[in-house]
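Late entry, written up from scratch paper. The run itself happened at the end of the previous shift, but nothing got recorded in the book at the time, so transcribing now.
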Amino acid sequence: MSAGRKFREALKENGPLQIVGVINAYSAIQAEATGAKALYISGAGVANASYGLPDIGMTMLEDVCIDIRRITGRCDLPLLVDADTGWGGAFNISRTVKEMTKAGAAGCHIEDQVAQKRCGHRPNKELVSIEEMCDRIKAAVSGKTDPEFVVMARTDAHASEGQEAALKRAKAYVEAGADMIFAEAIHTLEEYKAFTAEITVPVLANITEFGATPMFTKDELGSVGIDMVLYPLSGFRAMNKAALDVFKSIIDEGSQASTLPIMQTRMELYDMLDYHSYEEKLDALFAKSK
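Output as recorded:
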């Protein structure tokens, strides 16, 4: 079964489908262990975690594909990927879909911001025309080597152009071939309900912390017809805070002892990685005959 098919099956079987953001292979393993059914890698996650850069369009396709390959090489859950604005013109966008599919992704979303993009929950976002975004979608669809690969269109229009403009754009993107819609920075359940009532394909709600969208629950979003709930950087934010607390205790207190309770133990790490099975394999392969 292709990765794209796995994602579509997970969507059918889970209502709404919770999509958990991960930043590397180990966090993907942890998410799978908790029962997650689908994963996500965000452009911000790649820029922030892998390159120490802000999410303003400085990373490129191969930067993202490196992280895709690392995650899909270790975890079989379907992975949705942030493709930003597609990294160029029609041929570049088509290549983005081809390369992400080859790397093991189940799908990607492309947004309607200008190439010099900003975080979706920051002010002063600038959008391309509907026509240009529809061309991006057509180019992405043309790049499918797996017909089940998901091309999702993200619209950032709600914040800068309003709800009606966002709906108008979303409808046009579906007509252009988008398999699903990502409605960014929506403020109310009623506005989400308008999306699901008027849009004929599955709709995703992005429930990111400290942003423009309230912390709606899975059940609340399901009640207004949302098909997917995305948590793009929740684990990453927690990792960052925990690591900072540990580093601070080492420098300020001269020891990490006070922060041991927030650490994963060595044995918990080994268990998550199935470390002992690797040792047993080595012992079996290279055991000395007596």
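Residues 3-235 form a domain with the TIM Barrel fold (CATH 3.20.20.60).
(Scratch paper discarded after transcription.)
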